[in-house]
Amino acid sequence: MNKLVLIAGGSALVYAGLALLMGVLPGIELSRTPAGPGVEPLTPLQAEGRDVYVANGCGYCHTQQVRPLPQDKIFGRASAPGDFAYQTPELLGSERTGPDLTNAGVRQPSTVWQFIHLYNPRAVVPESIMPAFDWMFKVVEQAPAGTTPVPLPKAYAPAKGVVVPAHQAEALVAYLLSLKQPALPDLATHDGGSATPGVSSASPAGAAVAS
Amino acid sequence: MSQILGREGEHRAQASVFVAYTAAATLWLLFATAVGLVLAYKFGAPDFARGEFLTFGRLRPIHTNATLFGWASLALVGLAYYVTPRSCGSPLYSAKLAWIGLALFNVAAVAGTIALDLGYNAGSLEYREWPWPIRLILLAALAVTAWNLIGTIARRDTEDIYLSNWYIVGGVLWACIFSLVAILPWYQYGLGQVSVSGYYMHNAVGMWFTPLTLGMLYYALPKTLSRPIYSYALGVFAFWTNLVFYPIIGSHHFLFSPLPWWLQTTAIVFSVAMLVPVWGGSSNFLLTMRGRLRDLVHSYPLMFIFVGVIGYVVGSTQGTFEAFRSLQEVWHLTNFTVGHSHLTMYGFVNFAIWGGVYALLPLATGKAPGPLGLSLHFWMAVVGSFIYVISLSIGGTIQGLDWMRGAPFIQSVVDIQSYWVWRGVGGVLMFLSHIVFAWNVWRMCFGPSAEAAPLAAEGAAV
């Protein structure tokens, strides 16, 4: 019996200690990371869009983390700890089958483009392999007052009627357009003024890697 | 006399537990890999099987969770329920608890699959996507299993506890702990959750699937070879080093992320340290097989185990190298990672499970599969997974190099296309091999060759 207590109990105890050290304690400490300058919580509609993003597993192909590496500069400045203060669940992701979306709202600020792309990505990017999210749209005979139909190319438009976004698509696009990196003011001087607002490429970690 | 009958009844009860877990696991394997095939096909034909309930982002976590918690977990627990009583010389503590555990595992996996398909995804956090109430059911299944196995070991007829049970009981207890850590929400906000994700996703693999697989191998390999393990002490050494090093390496999934740099560096250092238990464990298995090449090529269970051990050492060593910052610069976030996860979960865990099932299930049921089924399964699985891993490793490298040379992003999607086709080819072979495996399991559990002794089966089946 004693040996069993030693092996089962001992190893469970050691593991519990390590779980505390590597899981729980860093979690407690990092959960307190304050929001960076200009990092704002989402509006209710954007937050709803984030739920749509999670429910449909967008994060399995799109990361939301810009690394301090040269090849990531096209996606924005390197992500800083303060960027994630309001991001629960975290959506950093582990694969980049599609591009990083940290700055999607800066890169593609057009609502119309986002709707067409969501309805069928190949309508705007022929080589894209992103799924079509046409089920987030409705086909109606005539767009209701105050709604603009999605201007789809003929090859992708339904034979009859027009396409209007359903609520899910509206929320998701609101979320995608909200994805903009706030500039880090104290570092902006480093990279000689980035042309795109919110897209500055230098960070302390970036400089460390480059040197 | 009644004592003998009692023993007989216990063995029958244990065999039916083993059979039920293996059969359920096999169904999950077929389901999970069928979903995997649909996913692989979508890379080339993104408009195939479109719509809310078949969209890529919902099927992907269904594939991974069904593989991990439906197939691999059930298969390994089923094997543990055979290995632990046998190596302890004692009956299973409670067959009833084993059945309750089986029901809980399956309820969790079915409910989790349905939830994910309906869009109830708990944050796209890898391998813990099931909503938390469902993960509590999984935790209950693990707790029941731990209780049952500890109870069995407590009734052993020797003072010593055989090495297999160290790994098995350790693995089940650790799984209870990391599952709980992953569920509790209080320290999982923003970046805090990122660190927990890193911890959890690697511990789920290395503190659950790895120890249960190794524990099973420490029984199945000596049993099949009728020869003791090369070094018991080396196995104990690998046990403790795996326990101390593995929990620390999780953050290497988030290299170059905003997680503290020291946390990432610590993870890299211990990823290198992992070479100690990995090479210790795998050389222990290989040295046990040394000089028995002739037996190896004449025994499919041993061939499966051999591939599993090779998968363990190659996959884990690759993991160490992937953790280096210089190589992560190329491979991080590419399909290379998907190749790596299949090399380890498939090349190591799956092959070891199959070797264990083919070695031990016939001993429990007295029925054996035929040589045709065994060879078809083995060769299709080996060739299929080889094609799968090689194509994604090359394709992933090309993706990473495309990004580094600053090509437009879509170029990386175009350049990997043909490698995704090859991945699909490998995937088809793997899936076909699983159908054959299901046929073999059928023969081992319910097959007609009921009278055939396990060792005579080879001749009888032709």
Describe this structure in words.
- The complex is a heterodimer of chains A (211) and B (462).
- Chain A has a two-stranded antiparallel sheet.
- Chain A has 211 residues and is mainly alpha-helical.
- The longest helix of chain B has 43 residues.
- Chain B is globular.
- The C terminus of chain B is likely disordered.
- At the A-B interface, α1 of A face α1, α2, α4, α5 and α6 of B.
Number of strands of chain B: 0
Q: Please give the radius of gyration of chain A in angstroms.
A: 22 Å
What Rg of chain B do the Cα atoms give? 22 Å
End-to-end separation of chain A in angstroms reads: 59 Å
Mean pLDDT of chain A: 89
Q: What characterizes the major β-sheet of chain B?
A: none
Gross geometry of chain B: globular
Poorly predicted runs of chain A: 188-211
Distance between the termini of chain B: 38 Å
Kindly estimate the percentage of residues of chain A that lie in beta strands according to DSSP.
Answer: under 5%
Q: Which features does this protein show?
A:
heterodimer, A: 211 residues, mainly alpha, two-stranded antiparallel ribbon, B: 462 residues, 17 helices, 78% helix, disordered C terminus
Q: What is the gist of this entry?
A:
The complex is a heterodimer of chains A (211) and B (462). Chain A has 6 helices and 2 strands; from the N terminus they run ααααββαα. Chain A has helices at 2-31, 44-55, 104-107, 111-119, 167-178, 204-210; strands spanning 137-140, 162-165.
